[in-house]
Amino acid sequence: MIKIAWNPLYAHPLPEGHRFPMLKYELIPGQLLHEGTISQENLFSPEVVEEDIILATHSNDYWQSVRDLKLSPKDQRRIGFPLNAELVERERRITQGTIDGARFALDNGVAFNVAGGTHHSGSNWGEGFCILNDQAIAANCLLNNKLSSSILIIDLDVHQGNGTAEIFKNESRVFTFSMHGDKNFPFRKEVSDLDVPLNDGIGDEEYLYLLEQNLQIAFRKSQPDFVFYLAGVDVLSTDKLGKLSLTKAGCKERDRIVFQHCKTKNLPLQVSMGGGYSTDIKDIVDAHCNTYRLAFDLFE
User: Fold this and answer.
1) How far is CA 196 from the centre of its chain?
2) Can you give the residue ranges of the Histone deacetylase domain (predicted)?
């Protein structure tokens, strides 16, 4: 059975101006349940990740400042919103959801986190609405528990996975692949194992061609036994922040390419949902739900 991490705290209310993107964390599971793609049995509510697991990825000074709500105003501005205890708990539950999902994927082939994809968080910083790097923490958890020896992280959010690249820059067991807008945030890029910077306005045909070609390179170079996938839908033409021009059909085909590679190679796959900032919330929810619909068609 495909398992999906979700908790009501995922829809944590943020300060005015940041609340709209949070609506999707309620609407995605609601839509999937309504249409019958999933049942309540597919959903699980993660606990709070333990500190020692966080500290295998993030520095002690950074984590203590987050935990104790003592990040400087400058560092909080870099994240994009002020810290509070409930927000930190939310991040810890999201992270545990990705860890649990990775373990479920080992048994079931694929697992999801309705939130996550917090790839701008580096070893000692938070940035771009990201406080803890859920997939990086989960990858280290697999390695440290000898559940994996070679991991591929496929990051297809429109923004470069700069935090993930920094965390694993000296870790040969984790291969980081980021395909992202070249002239988009973050404006100071890190170096992934494979970066594919894209010009503004790129459409379905060119995007999917580049993805197929570079996925083959990433799999060949990494020879993974586990895959993490960040499936942001901010690549859509309707996205306010994305600058690319993919259709929903193109976005769904992107997911199909990734899923098919993993299924053909019999590789366990954990999926975190990443960004999506289209003006109409329906576009965001439908594109994200397509990722789930496709996975249930292919893996169930």
Assistant:
1) 17
2) 24-289
Euclidean distance between CA atoms 196 and 198, whole angstroms = 6
110-113 and 43-44 as β-strands: parallel, antiparallel, unpaired? unpaired
Please choose, from the candidates 219, 202, 196, the residue with its C-alpha nearest in 3D space to the C-alpha of residue 266: 219
The domain of 109 spans 3-299
pTM of the model: 0.97
Number of domains in the chain: 1
The CATH number of residue 141's host domain is 3.40.800.20
Average pLDDT, the chain: 95
H helical segments located in 118-247: 134-144, 162-167, 204-222
Q: What is the mean pLDDT of each run of 10 residues along the chain (300 residues)?
A: 95 63 89 98 98 98 98 95 92 98 97 98 96 98 98 98 98 98 94 98 98 98 98 96 96 98 98 93 96 95
Please provide the size of the chain in residues: 300
Determine the residue type at 83.
Answer: L
Q: How far apart are CA 159 and CA 235, in angstroms?
A: 9
